Amino acid sequence: MFKILKYSFYDLMRGRWAFLYTAFYLALTSTLLWLSPDLSKVIISLMNVVLILVPLIATMFGIMYYYHSREFTELLLAQPLRRTSIFFGQYLGIALSLSASLLVGIGLPFVLWGVFSSDSTGEWLMVLVTGIFLSFIFAAVAYFIALNHENRIKGFGLAILAWLVFAVVYDGVFLLLLTMYNDYPLEGFAIAGTMINPIDMARVLILLQLDISALMGYTGAVFQKFLGQSFGMMLAFGALMMWVLLPALGIRWVAQRKDF
Amino acid sequence: MIRLNALEKKFGRLEVLRGISLTFRDQGITAILGPNGSGKTTLIKSILGMVLPNNGSILFNGRDIKGQWAYRDQIDYLPQIARFPDNIRVRELMHMIRDIRGKVPAQQDRLVELFGLGPYWDKRLGDLSGGTRQKVNIVQAFMFDSPVMILDEPTNGLDPVALIHLKDLLREERGKGKQMLITTHIMHFVEEMADELIFLLEGNVIFQGRTADLLHRVHEENLENATAAILRDRKIDRVNGHAFTRVTPAFHLT
Ligand SMILES: Nc1ncnc2c1ncn2[C@@H]1O[C@H](COP(=O)(O)OP(=O)(O)OP(=O)(O)O)[C@@H](O)[C@H]1O
Ligand SMILES: [Mg+2]
Fold first, then answer.
1. In this structure, what is the dihedral angle of CA atoms A166, A168, A170, A173, given to the nearest 10 degrees?
2. From the alpha carbon of B35, which atom of ligand 1 is closest?
3. B43 alpha carbon to ligand 1 midpoint, in Å?
4. B31-56 in b/e burial notation, b at 16+ Cβ within 10 A?
5. Chain centre distance of CA A60
6. Is the ipTM of this complex over 0.90?
7. CA atoms in the 13 A half-sphere facing the CB of A47
8. A197: domain range?
9. What is the pTM of this model?
10. Is A38 exposed, middle or buried (0-12, 13-18, 19+ CB in 10 A)?
11. How many domains, chain A?
12. What is the pLDDT of residues B47-78, one digit of tens each?
């Protein structure tokens, strides 16, 4: 598996997209740091970008890489390799290259700025960690979709749709439901509803870490009030773990059954 | 040894292999024949574990290959369509395959020389002509000295000179006692090279044996006519209300 991972990783890092992606974060983070002396504000701005952009780019990389390396995969399948090694190797290659871009793009400017001697180290780490989680999750979802659809246009469409649902549609519908039924006690529903969406989960984690009640929003506040900060965080991390695991299991399931 | 037991494969409702049982000869060249879409590639890919059968089993050296992968170390494979990643160079491709196999190629340089690939060594695969890509495909398949070779239409797109080199190579490998499964539509090639034929039709094996036996059975002088006769006879049988496959027991040699 590590050989495949290595090839996928280098293949991606060599490409211009990974370079652009990293450069974008470098520019964004540096600009934000330069514009504002308040680290919390920088982190909140960054969070808003990361929560939308990381899932989108991870989706694109996951789907494109599968189709792009379809021929090579066929070559690999005839070699003395486990099927799961081939597909997990590729998936991990994608996820790790996305993570590397994040680490460099968001990590480096903060380190140079001196984040370790500030009191925002925790929040900064939380943005990085949730960003990496989202990269793994959405790359896995997209790769799983690609594996299921030989028709590229269909696969691409479905993957973008999945991103759209989690990044945009879900919150709208969810909030609508919450306001429609706001006469009822909705805390349990709010918590469950948030845990279903990995992007919401990442947002709650960062907000809990920031611990600014004014910014918490309804679901964040519910998490803090009913679960407490540390238990809320544990639960949120658990949910993110599940979100990494489920599509990965899906990839394995399909990889073991598919004809090439 | 490669053995198929009642192998069945469907793609959706299309039954491509309908219960194939046979043992391939252990040494020499077995030609797998059959019209387009008769399931030759499907059969080959099943042996490689790329296509997963719905029913039946495949034994490689006596062991069921289901869920196995290490046995592929014994097989060199040449895919029918030489599809490689477009944007990597020939050099990089060869390096990757070597690295993944974890073996030192027995005769890479010689093959590169033989097929005149030197000038293309640093070119991107996407920029190569179809025939040149097929030569890369051949080098890739022949460079390790595995005991089993599975070649899916190796003659695809080759010029006459390259074809002669290919035949020489095959004879050489046969001399080493290798087992080779080859599909092709070129009947002269089969007459010249094959030690045994396997004829696939509508998901069944309708003949396994020597070329001469097949010619004798259909009273034809050469394979091209024999193949045509088989396909035509099937039509006549259809008109008579018999499917050709009903006649197969008489045809089958084992
Ligand atoms: N992955 C797949 N999904 C669906 N159908 C498939 C798949 N692979 C092959 N088929 C179908 O199975 C049948 C047999 O295909 P196969 O490639 O095995 O034929 P073949 O004998 O190799 O033909 P040719 O001489 O043209 O190479 C064809 O009808 C083909 O369309
Ligand atoms: Mg074929």
1. -170
2. 25
3. 9
4. bbbbeeebbbbbbbbbbbbbbbbeeb
5. 12
6. no
7. 26
8. 2-257
9. 0.90
10. exposed
11. 1
12. 999 999 999 999 999 999 999 999 999 999 99
